[in-house]
Structure formats: structure tokens, C-alpha cells
Write a structure and sequence with these properties.
208 residues; alpha/beta; Rossmann fold; 4-stranded antiparallel beta sheet; 9 strands; globular; binds adenosine-5'-triphosphate; nucleotide-binding
């Protein structure tokens, strides 16, 4: 799926985060979305995922050059972000079954494959609420990367992860060959695989 944004601007109250953004995201490329804390990276991702409206400008989605209706975009996107909550009452296995009752697993993997890939074999029946913060983050990344969609959005993907978790995350990305990943991050080790970069703070208006 391709995304085209035109004149995209966002403000909260009187403060403009970014203004006049024109950009295209093409299937096959992966993008690092960078900028200082509070520059608007998460907000930008939510707008181009169709979860939030811009203050000005447009976002359009295309599949093979055919427009995708805004209300169906969510079916083609998987997101892992600090603000996307897991269902804490579920066990690991229930969480996987629930998530993959809405969308398919990528590349024909089974739920059992995912349990093994995520190193969750010993915690299958443990409630998510009792997971460590690093385990929860590994689960969020597993769910996002292994959902069979053309676009994956990752917001601060290695939050709470140690060096093993970070290495695991990069290995999954390398193995899966996902058409397009957008990573909102200020940490270069989280987006080593991205071939394009968009700096949100470049679009902060001086006097708007
Ligand atoms: N719903 C909202 N209402 C008002 N202000 C908001 C809202 N959501 C975000 N903001 C503000 O917009 C600014 C950008 O927030 P955002 O989370 O998009 O930045 P970010 O670049 O992802 O930050 P970080 O690197 O710290 O995660 C912040 O000042 C934030 O307080």
C-alpha cells in the first residue's frame, strides 16, 4: 500500500506540531520517522494510520494505484506503540488467539510457531498482566510484525527491551521481509533497516 500526504498539518490548541507536509510512502521502502521528544512522531503515525484527523491537509491510501477507503485502512495496518494496550486479563495464548481472530498470521505461521519464535513456551498460560515490561513489549512487536498486512507501524519499538530483546526484534524484521515498515524513533539502532528518513521537526512552523 502507498500513502500520499499533502499539505498535512497538525496543531493542538495553538501549538502547531508540523505544517505543510507533502510526502509519499511507497510500498517496498521502510521509513524512519525521527524528531525530538514531543515533535509529533506518534501523532503523525496516528494520522497516517487513519486513527486521528489532521488539522489541515489530506492523507490518501492506494493499493496498486486504486484508492483505499479511509474506513478500511486499519485492515491493512498493524501497529506496536506504547499507547496500544494488550488485554492484561488474557493469557499469552488467549491474547494470540484473540488478535489473530481478526487478522491472519503472516507467511502461514501457526500460533504455536509464534509462541516459539517469541520465546513464550514457558509462559503460554500466564496472564499478560504478570509479564515483565520487556516481555509485554516483545509480545506487542510479535503481534505487529507477524500480522499479515502490507504496512507495519512501530512507535519506539525497543522500549523496555534489553540488548537480547533488541537483537531479537531486528532478527524478526530481517527474516520477515515486510513490504513497508514505519518506525517512529530517535534511536538509530531501532531503524537500521530503514532506507528512508523523515524528520518531523523539519516541518515545525516558525510563526504559524
Ligand atoms: N490529544 C492531545 N491533546 C493535546 N496535546 C497533545 C495530544 N496528543 C499529543 N499532544 C502533544 O503533542 C506533542 C507531540 O506529541 P507526540 O507524542 O506526537 O510526540 P513524539 O514526537 O512522539 O514524542 P516522544 O518522542 O516523546 O514520544 C506533545 O507536546 C504532546 O503533549
Amino acid at each position: 500500500m502507498d500513502i500520499r500526504i499533502s499539505g498535512l498539518s497538525k496543531r493542538f490548541n495553538r501549538e502547531w506540531l508540523f505544517s505543510g507536509m507533502d510526502h509519499s510512502f511507497s510500498e517496498g521502502d521502510s521509513y524512519a520517522i525521527t524528531g525530538a521528544n514531543g515533535s509529533g512522531k506518534s501523532t503523525f503515525l496516528q494520522i497516517i494510520a487513519g486513527f486521528q484527523l489532521p488539522s489541515e491537509g489530506t492523507v490518501e491510501w492506494f493499493e496498486n494505484n486504486i484508492p483505499v477507503p479511509a474506513e478500511t485502512v486499519y485492515q491493512r495496518i498493524a501497529i506496536a506503540a506504547p499507547y496500544m494496550e494488550l488485554v492484561e486479563e488474557f493469557t499469552l495464548k488467549e491474547m494470540l488467539s484473540f488478535h489473530f481472530s481478526f487478522k491472519s498470521v503472516r507467511n502461514g505461521y501457526s500460533i504455536q510457531d509464534l509462541i516459539d519464535i517469541g520465546y513464550f513456551t514457558d509462559t503460554v498460560n500466564k496472564p499478560v498482566r504478570n509479564f515483565s515490561s520487556g516481555m509485554k513489549q516483545r509480545l506487542k512487536i510479535l503481534l505487529a510484525l507477524y500480522t499479515d498486512v502490507p504496512l507495519v507501524f512501530l512507535d519506539e519499538p525497543t522500549t523496555n527491551m534489553d540488548e537480547y530483546g533488541t537483537k531479537w526484534y531486528l532478527q524478526q524484521v530481517e527474516t520477515l521481509n515486510i513490504p513497508t515498515i514505519l518506525v517512529a524513533s530517535n534511536q538509530p539502532h531501532e531503524y537500521t533497516f530503514c532506507n528512508k528518513k523523515l524528520i518531523i521537526s523539519d516541518y515545525k512552523p516558525a510563526n504559524k
